[in-house]
Specification:
Helix 15 runs antiparallel to helix 16. Strand 4 and strand 5 form a beta hairpin. The two termini are about 25 Å apart. Among the domains are: about 120 residues, no CATH class; about 250 residues, no CATH class. About 10% of the residues have low confidence. About 20% of the residues are buried. The longest helix is centred in the middle third of the chain and has 47 residues. The strands form two sheets. A three-stranded antiparallel beta sheet has the order 2-1-3. The protein is mainly alpha-helical.
């Protein structure tokens, strides 16, 4: 003996019935209050000891009435809902369990002679059409109304199921049988509507999916863009604090001291300035030597070399960073001999003086190490800034795939461009300073030239004071005479060139150090609007194309499939929990 239990489980559709209370009462259906209705639903229970399709239909009609949907006297009332969010649970137990299929098309259940419950959507291939459909649905008009449906937005689709004896048929064979079935006169009118057959259903579902994607994708992209904008804003805040030296407001600076960028750059700029000051000239000027102070440069050069050597692990900087040799100490050879060499190579028809070409030649020779020193410093700062950017991105973007896609698709090329731009500007500044005409409007230049001449005269008086005797006046005249008369024009020219070169070199050295630090470093690599530190910003994210955004923030295909699978599994588990708790 088989036993069937039925009971409805309260779902999420209570608001439907609250809106329909007045209408239901008009037609004699008693709709209790929300709490009473819940109690009625939970109290609904029927148990059948004899399986009878007609009795089961009666029970289902009672359940429909309890849930407030169309049934019996209200089955043609299109103002009432045809479906409910409540669940009707049917349990079958017993040694001889009949095959039961229930399709939620209210009002279409029909009991056949064999006592089984059938409906037009679930028909066996050999069932007679006139018996499968109740009399009220056999007219073309009724069937057309059913398929179109005036309460269902999408209407009905009718398909042919595989029969009990058709398990061995292929999909193509099943499709052929379905096509044959719906060419029968009974189905001709419905077929014209395009709502019969699996192919029509598939096309409709594909269209629905496309429309859903069209509506939802902009929302999804907006969320993705908003997420990336927030990350870029966080990156901006860290960069701003790092450049301003505000390290107290963010624990990231205590956890990662290497991100204290302002402090790091200040140390590098000061070391660069000291290096140019003490080792930037090719030859020592007369009466001047910094060799005793060179040990102080060891820390800067060691740090710079370590930074540049580490680029072997940063392949994306391979085309940006070049190899640089160590900076040698200035030569202690007689600089006057070098000036004499350039004087002989460049002398012209000048009378008692020298041309501007001589100063240009000697200045370029004296500054021949500047290019290597400057470019080494700029590239050192580039590596420091690049590491800073990668570290901050790692800290702000936890998702590895998003971080890598953003880096590879958008950021890296812009960063490399910014680095090259800084190097090119440094080359530009050097070209003006070293290869241009020696020119300055700094009053310190003339002051230093006069100072050099005064020091030379002072030296004469020092020599005179060492030889003073009875004939002081004669000795003084002799010393002055030797200084003036015994020198050739070439010797006098060499001294003048030396004094002017020394004075101009000091002015130019100050100028090149300031412009490199202020422009190539501070502006092009740190603070400027086009600096690499400003590349990851909210504006960049807002201008990304939809394709870029999807590639960066969209889920990969495997993740999407897994998410869909887990979502379906969760829904099934939630439904099972509701049934169990009910």
């Amino acid at each position: 003996m088989s036993k069937i239990k039925t009971e409805p489980i309260d779902g999420l559709g209570n608001h439907i019935y609250l809106e329909k209370q007045d209408r239901l009462r008009e037609i004699g259906v008693d709709i209790p209050t929300s709490q009473d209705r819940k109690d009625a639903l939970r109290g609904f229970h029927h148990e059948l000891t004899d399986f009878d399709g007609k009795t089961l239909v009666d029970v289902i009609n009672k359940a429909n009435k309890t849930m407030g949907i169309r049934s019996g006297a209200t089955q043609y009332d299109t103002t009432l809902p045809m479906f409910s969010d409540d669940i009707l649970k049917i349990e079958i137990s017993g040694p001889e369990k009949p095959h039961l299929t229930v399709i939620d098309v209210p009002g279409l259940f029909q009991v056949t002679d064999e006592g089984s419950c059938q409906c037009p959507v679930d028909r066996g291939p050999d069932t007679d059409s006139s018996q499968a459909l109740p009399p009220r649905w056999t007219s073309p008009r009724s069937r057309t109304w059913l398929v179109k449906g005036n309460t269902l937005k999408l209407g009905y689709f009718i398909v042919r199921n595989r029969g009990a004896d058709e398990d061995t048929l292929s999909i193509a064979e099943c499709q052929m049988k379905e096509q044959e079935k719906f060419t029968e006169p009974l189905w001709t009118e419905l077929t014209k509507l395009g709502h019969t057959g699996v192919q029509a259903l598939r096309a409709e579902l594909q269209g629905l999916l496309t429309e859903l994607a069209r509506r939802e994708l902009p929302k999804q992209r907006a969320e993705q863009r908003e997420c990336l904008v927030r990350l870029a804003a966080r990156f901006e805040r860290i960069v701003r604090d790092a450049l301003d030296g505000r390290y107290d407001g963010n624990p990231i600076f205590s956890e990662k001291p290497e991100l204290k960028l302002a402090t790091k750059i200040m140390d590098l700029n000061e070391g660069f300035t000291d290096l140019v000051w003490k080792k930037g000239h090719t030859w020592e000027f007369k009466a001047e030597s910094h060799n005793d102070d060179l040990d102080n440069l060891l820390e800067y050069e060691t740090m710079s070399n370590a930074v540049l050597d580490s680029t072997t692990s940063i392949p994306e900087l391979e085309q940006v960073i070049c190899d640089h040799a160590a900076c040698p100490a200035p030569l202690t050879d007689d600089i006057m001999g070098q000036i004499e060499k350039y004087y002989k190579e460049s002398r012209g028809p000048e009378l008692g003086t020298f041309g501007g070409a001589l100063l240009s030649l000697t200045f370029r020779a004296q500054t021949s190490k500047w290019r290597a020193i400057v470019m080494t410093h700029v590239e050192t700062v580039i590596v420091v800034a690049h590491r800073f950017i990668k570290t901050v991105l790692f800290e702000t973007i936890g998702d590895q795939r998003i971080r890598e896609e953003l880096w590879g698709l958008v950021l890296l090329e812009k960063l490399q461009t910014a680095y090259i731009r800084a190097k090119n500007h440094a080359q530009f500044l050097l070209g003006i300073e070293v290869n241009g005409r020696p020119r300055t409007y700094n009053h310190h230049f003339s002051d230093d030239v006069l100072k050099s001449k005064a020091e030379r005269l002072t030296q004469v008086f020092v020599e005179y004071s060492d030889h003073r005797g009875e004939d002081d006046y004669g000795i003084f005249n002799s010393t002055i005479g030797q200084m003036v008369e015994d020198k050739s024009i070439a010797d006098q020219t060499k001294e003048d060139v030396h004094d002017i070169l020394e004075s101009y070199y000091k002015v130019s050295r100050k100028r090149v150090v300031d412009t490199i630090c202020q422009q190539a470093i501070d502006h092009f690599l740190l603070d400027g609007s086009d600096s690499p530190l400003k590349v990851p910003n909210p504006e960049l994210i807002s201008k990304m194309s939809d394709t870029q955004l999807d590639m960066i923030a969209g889920e990969d295909i495997n993740t999407k499939r897994e998410r869909e699978r887990l979502g379906s599994e969760i829904q099934g588990l939630e439904a099972a929990m509701k049934v169990t708790r009910g």
